[in-house]
UniProtKB/TrEMBL annotation, chain A:
It comes from Streptomyces pacificus. This is NADH-quinone oxidoreductase subunit K. The keyword NAD applies. GO terms for molecular function: NADH dehydrogenase (quinone) (non-electrogenic) activity; quinone binding. The gene is nuoK. NDH-1 is composed of 14 different subunits. Subunits NuoA, H, J, K, L, M, N constitute the membrane sector of the complex. It is an enzyme of class 7 (translocase).
From TrEMBL, chain B:
It catalyses: a quinone + NADH + 5 H(+)(in) = a quinol + NAD(+) + 4 H(+)(out). The gene is nuoN. It is a multi-pass membrane protein. This is NADH-quinone oxidoreductase subunit N. Keywords: Cell membrane, Membrane, NAD, Quinone, Translocase, Transmembrane, Transmembrane helix, Transport. The lineage of its organism: Bacteria, Bacillati, Actinomycetota, Actinomycetes, Kitasatosporales. It comes from Streptomyces pacificus. It holds the Pfam family Proton_antipo_M. Belongs to the complex I subunit 2 family. The keyword tRNA processing does not apply. NDH-1 shuttles electrons from NADH, via FMN and iron-sulfur (Fe-S) centers, to quinones in the respiratory chain. The immediate electron acceptor for the enzyme in this species is believed to be a menaquinone. Couples the redox reaction to proton translocation (for every two electrons transferred, four hydrogen ions are translocated across the cytoplasmic membrane), and thus conserves the redox energy in a proton gradient. The chain crosses the membrane at residues 27-49, 61-82, 102-120, 162-179, 185-203, 215-239, 270-295, 307-328, 340-359, 366-387, 393-414, 435-455, 475-499, 511-533. InterPro entries: NADH-Q_OxRdtase_suN/2, ND/Mrp_TM. It is an enzyme of class 7 (translocase). Its EC number is 7.1.1.-. NDH-1 is composed of 14 different subunits. Subunits NuoA, H, J, K, L, M, N constitute the membrane sector of the complex.
Length: 99, 549
């Protein structure tokens, strides 16, 4: 199968993730959409790696997974602490500093 | 590439190799980064092994020693000629050791050193249950206002983890402007961003605001780094490599061997243009340039003030270093495409930051918008695309980081019952009540405004001259206009401090320990020295302005 098709899929997933970040209001869902974007990046990296016949893209995909895991650790800690003090994970409710 | 060729790649990878070449790592040239990473890991161990009552001093000692040692290593490398004649690529092509990298690493380390002093300050907050406390939460996991928080305060807990977190962030920032391939760049970005997200959430007072700032910074930061990563994927797809030199060759069309796959992707300019734009987007987010600046005021206001100072100074230095290297080393062949875009961004950043700052009523938000305007001024130097452009940006970053850290350190001193009194109305008449603090803050504001005899003037002059010589005259005119707009609100704060009556229930100025005093004194000293006698440092930045390829 032509690897370019995987690039289209990656672009589609990335767009779904990006629109999710902009549309959804729950911090956890927003965060999941960001993870979807990172996975779309991984898919395109691996597809490009296949097209070019070198392994750089696959190595980067491994690094991205580790970074995504570290981001989950930090992100969930911050979101959970916000949820515990406000009893809401909505990104619209967090507006103490709105001008 | 054919299926059989790829298949043979897997087979080769799966077969046992007789001899794996060990990578050659130049440890001496990587010493600054290794020292700071090592100290950060030691700091995590200190949290485990050292009893709670002596952790604060141990952590602070470790952080100060590590940053000083790393700075000494940077000086040693610079003295050994690694910034000029012996500049080169280290760590199998991952890290560049050259003039701009060493200059920016030195700036980041000095800025981090004086920031760590403000992190360690324990005389400003009134003591809780007879113990001196710093500006960080007793226990970050406890819910604000809950019994568990009260118990943590009563037990005298402090979040000493801020020191290793800051060291991890500094280590990432050291790698960021020196990264010589896109993978290292991305990892460095995450290594310095993740600790900063956490540091933002750790304020002792106004914890809801602090947590809100952290969530906003985290979600937007992760969003922008996803764009950044997709940009990396597209540029990798275009060039078939993530090494800067290789990408630059492919962009220029001077690459030696072209296989069919590369020939196919090289023909597709959309990959390069969209990928390059996404890379720029990620870096401009960290810089705080205008279409991507929305996080800046909220995060600067909500984060603990020592963290804000550190973040405002060091992040900007690191991000501009990476931006310079990306534009000057990787994408010079594309400068006809990126220059108009950067022009537009510089103009809206300068004007937007300056105009919106006028309406601000909170001193931390005011400084946040001022930092956005300053990002615009620095972008004017980036656009010059000449060696003078590089050296002027390096000098501006050095000058700006100390003014910023000093100004935020002064903000920590002005307090009332609720913690720091950041509303501007409370600063009225501060000059009558404590002339010294108000005078010091006035020096920083004049430097922000770019008044002669302060570092702000030398920096702005260097940047605008480089931009004008680089053919960006219009940009300089707009820059001067927005400097004038910006000067209006800096002067307004000075007038407010010195020429209005103090309020009866106004804030008090806390007497800090020698730590914060050192930070402010260093800030004032650097501001005046770089303003009165900038030539030596301009020459230094000039010598350091050649990127290695």
């Amino acid at each position: 199968m032509n690897p370019v098709n995987y690039l289209y899929l990656a672009a589609l997933l990335f767009t779904i993730g990006a629109s999710g970040v902009l549309i959804r209001r729950n911090a956890i869902v927003v965060f999941m959409c960001i993870e979807l974007m990172l996975n779309a990046c991984n898919l395109s990296l691996v597809a490009f790696s296949r097209m070019h016949g070198n392994l750089d893209g696959q190595i980067i995909a491994f690094f991205t997974m580790v970074v995504a895991a570290a981001e989950v650790v930090v992100g969930l800690a911050i979101i959970v602490s916000l949820f515990r003090s406000r009893h809401s994970a909505s990104v619209d409710d967090a507006s103490l500093m709105k001008l | 590439m054919s299926t059989t060729a790829v298949h043979s790649l897997w087979i080769t990878a799966a077969q046992p190799l007789d001899k794996i070449q060990a990578p050659h790592i130049e440890y001496a040239q990587l010493a600054p980064m290794i020292i700071v990473f090592g100290a950060a890991i030691l700091g995590v161990l200190v949290e485990v092994l050292v009893p709670r009552r002596s952790r604060h001093h141990t952590q602070m000692f470790l952080a100060v020693v590590a940053l000083t040692a790393a700075f000494a290593a940077v000086l040693g490398l610079a003295a050994g000629g690694y910034g000029t004649t012996r500049a080169g690529i280290a760590a199998m092509g991952a890290i560049a050791v050259d003039g701009p990298a060493l200059f920016l690493q030195g700036t980041i380390l000095l800025a981090a050193l004086v920031s760590v002093f403000t992190f360690a300050e324990r005389r400003l907050d009134p003591s809780a249950d007879g113990r001196r406390v710093d500006s960080f939460a007793a226990q970050a996991a406890s819910v604000p206002g809950s019994d568990s928080e009260k118990a943590a305060v009563k037990a005298g807990f402090t979040t000493t983890e801020v020191f290793p977190l800051a060291l991890f962030a500094v280590a990432g920032m050291l790698v960021f402007p020196a990264a010589n391939d896109l993978l290292t760049l991305f990892i460095a970005l995450e290594v310095f961003s993740l600790p900063l997200y956490l540091l933002c959430a750790l304020a002792r007072r106004k914890r809801l605001m602090s947590q809100e700032a952290a969530v906003k910074y985290f979600l937007l930061g992760a969003f922008s780094s996803a764009f950044f990563l997709f940009g990396i994927a597209l540029v990798y797809g275009y060039a078939g490599s993530v090494a800067y030199a290789r990408i630059a060759d492919v962009v220029d069309g001077t690459v030696q061997t072209i296989d069919p796959a590369l020939a196919a992707t090289m023909g597709n300019d959309a990959l390069l243009l969209i990928g390059g734009a996404m890379l720029l987007m990620g870096l401009l987010f960290k810089v705080g340039a205008v279409p991507f600046h929305m996080w800046t005021p909220d995060v600067y206001q909500g984060a603990p003030t020592p963290v804000t100072g550190f973040m405002a100074a060091a992040t900007k230095v690191a991000a501009f270093g990476a931006l310079l290297r990306l534009l000057y080393v990787v994408l010079p062949g594309l400068s006809w495409d990126w220059r108009p875009v950067m022009w537009a961004i510089a103009i809206v950043t300068m004007l937007g930051g300056a105009i919106v700052a006028i309406t601000q009523t909170d001193i931390k938000r005011l400084l946040a918008y001022s930092s956005i305007a300053h990002a615009g001024f620095i972008l004017a130097g980036v656009i010059a695309a000449t060696p003078e452009g590089i050296s002027s940006v390096l000098f501006y970053l050095l000058a700006y980081s100390f003014v910023t850290i000093g100004a935020f350190a002064v903000v920590t001193l002005v307090r009332d019952a609720g913690g720091e009194a950041t509303h501007l109305s409370k600063w009225a008449g501060l000059g009558r009540r404590s002339p010294l603090v108000a005078a010091v803050f006035a020096v920083f504001l004049l430097a922000f405004a770019g008044i002669p005899l302060t570092s702000g003037f030398s920096g702005k002059f260097a940047v605008f001259r480089a931009a004008a010589e680089g053919g960006a005259g219009t940009l300089v005119v707009i820059g001067v206009i927005s400097s004038a707009i910006a000067a209006f609100f800096y002067i307004r704060v000075i007038v407010l401090m010195f020429f209005s009556e103090p309020r009866p229930e106004g804030p008090t100025v806390a007497v800090p320990s020698p730590l914060t005093m050192t930070t402010i004194a260093v800030g004032v000293a650097v501001t005046l020295v770089l303003g009165v006698a900038p030539q030596y440092f301009l020459d230094l930045a000039g010598q350091a302005s050649v990127f290695v390829r």
